[in-house]
UniProtKB/TrEMBL annotation:
GO biological process: protein urmylation; tRNA wobble position uridine thiolation
GO molecular function, one term: ATP binding
Cofactor info, note text: Binds 1 zinc ion per subunit.
Record-given protein name: Rhodanese domain-containing protein
Keyword Nucleotide-binding: yes
Involved pathway(s): tRNA modification; 5-methoxycarbonylmethyl-2-thiouridine-tRNA biosynthesis
Protein origin, superkingdom: Eukaryota
UniProt xrefs under SUPFAM superfamilies: Activating enzymes of the ubiquitin-like proteins
A Pfam family it matches: ThiF
GO cellular component entries: cytosol
Cofactor(s) needed: Zn(2+)
Domain Rhodanese: 300-391
UniProt keyword terms in alphabetical order: ATP-binding, Cytoplasm, Metal-binding, Multifunctional enzyme, Nucleotide-binding, Nucleotidyltransferase, Transferase, tRNA processing, Ubl conjugation pathway, Zinc
Length: 393
């Protein structure tokens, strides 16, 4: 250890049970953080400060203004650059000698084993079910502890999977994925920045304990539940131990098929609307269009009807020129009376969820040969990909 490191890490080295030995263990440990967003930023900040020997940062997204409310490593100067790079710039300000490995691609079934393999601890700081299952399965195969965090609205959860031979994996607890409509992203459901800060910091803490030998798995594994609005803030629930018949971590022979051959997105009910835009899944089916494709159709002068299914108040805030407003409830209640008479129909909403329901409803009453598509990513995608002056709210 370098002389200056005694000074840098002295405050934690004098702790009983930590000592020089703990610091050297941290130096030999490596941790990889998947997602440099609301959870990943605070986690990375404390992991980097504590003295891990190597830190991986994996995120395919770029920094946006709406991230700065909670993703504390990013700032106005790093808007538009990959989050993994932006986080690395901030961490190097804490310690210029950090050994960082940056990946600016999404973690996928094809690359997950290779990306996670060099590390001793994995942090799940992502926000979607397919990645949670992918991370869990990969950690089971590589026998790595997985410190998993989640946060939404005023609430958060923390759980360490796969830490000992008896601790469960994510699939042991959730063999069936949650319904996609219950898994809204922060932009749909809202999130208080300090809530992600609480959970992200706790993820860093668990990783530091795992690396230094301070981690104690209780008699029964537990999940921590945080509710910012409850007077007591925290409670823990006891979890079942590893499930013998779990298809991922159960007795040999029952392991989930090869990770590379598993379609995690389909398993979790198909892609979320913004994933195609964000490069997490490729390809787009014939019943869907990107914002750019809608723009192309309009520019070419094709006969196009845009049906905007947002509530009237939101339509009043901003709308595409010439679009017609049919709030989703009214459309679903009586699709045939709202079916445009001619032209290709593009159904749009704010983020791309209701528009899929609206397009389905119109298709159910339309004749064969009519073209009815939903716009992936909604008006937010329109603003990002087509018209930067279109308001995002
Ligand atoms: N498979 C994946 N590989 C790498 N990073 C991922 C993956 N899935 C999600 N992430 C990242 O996890 C982070 C989650 O953080 P968070 O939800 O705070 O951010 P966000 O997606 O930017 O938020 P918002 O929903 O407001 O747009 C994001 O930066 C996202 O890019
Ligand atoms: Zn399991």
């Amino acid at each position: 250890m370098e002389l200056a490191d005694y000074q840098r890490y002295g405050r934690q080295m004098i702790l009983d049970g930590f000592g020089l030995e703990g610091q050297l263990k941290l130096q030999k440990s490596s941790v990889v953080v998947i997602g440099a967003g609301g959870l990943g930023c605070p986690a990375l900040q404390y992991l980097a400060s504590a003295g891990f020997g190597k830190i991986g940062i994996v995120d395919h997204d770029i920094v946006e203004l709406s991230n700065l409310q909670r993703q504390v490593l990013h700032n106005e100067d790093t808007l538009g650059i990959p989050k993994a790079e932006s986080a690395a710039i901030a961490l190097r300000r804490i310690n210029s000698r950090l050994n960082l490995d940056i990946v600016t691609e999404a973690l996928t079934p094809q690359n997950a084993l290779d990306i996670l393999k060099p590390y001793s601890i994995v942090l799940d700081c992502t926000d979607n079910a397919p990645t949670r299952y992918l991370l869990s399965d990969t950690c089971v195969v590589l026998n790595l502890p997985l410190v998993s965090g989640a946060a939404q609205k005023f609430e958060g959860q923390l759980c360490v999977y796969n830490a000992t031979p008896t601790t469960p994996c994510y699939r042991c607890l959730f063999p069936i994925p949650p319904a996609p409509e219950t898994m809204g992203s922060c932009s749909e459901t809202g999130i208080l920045g300090a809530v992600t800060g609480v959970i992200g910091n706790l993820q860093a803490l668990e990783a530091i304990k795992l690396a230094t030998g301070l981690y104690q798995s209780g008699e029964k594994p537990t999940m921590l539940i945080f509710n910012a609005l409850s007077p007591t803030l925290f409670r823990t629930v006891k979890l079942r131990s590893r499930k013998e018949d779990c298809i991922a971590c159960g007795v040999e022979g029952k392991r989930v098929g090869s990770i590379k051959d598993t379609d995690y997105v389909q398993f979790c009910g198909g892609p979320a609307p913004d994933w195609i835009e964000r490069g997490m899944v490729s390809g787009i089916s014939g019943t869907r269009a990107t914002a750019a494709e809608l723009n192309e159709a309009i520019q070419k002068g094709q006969a196009v009807t845009v049906v905007d299914v947002r509530p009237r108040t939101e339509f009043g805030i901003c709308a595409l020129p010439g679009s017609m407003n049919v709030p989703i409830k009214e459309l679903v209640a009586d699709p045939s009376s709202h079916l445009p008479a001619n032209g290709d129909v593009y159904v749009v909403c704010r983020l791309g969820n209701d528009s899929q329901i609206g397009a389905d409803a119109l298709r159910s009453v339309a004749g064969n040969g009519s073209t009815i598509k939903d716009v992936v990513g909604g008006l937010r995608a329109w603003s990002q990909k087509v018209d930067g002056k279109f308001p995002v709210y």
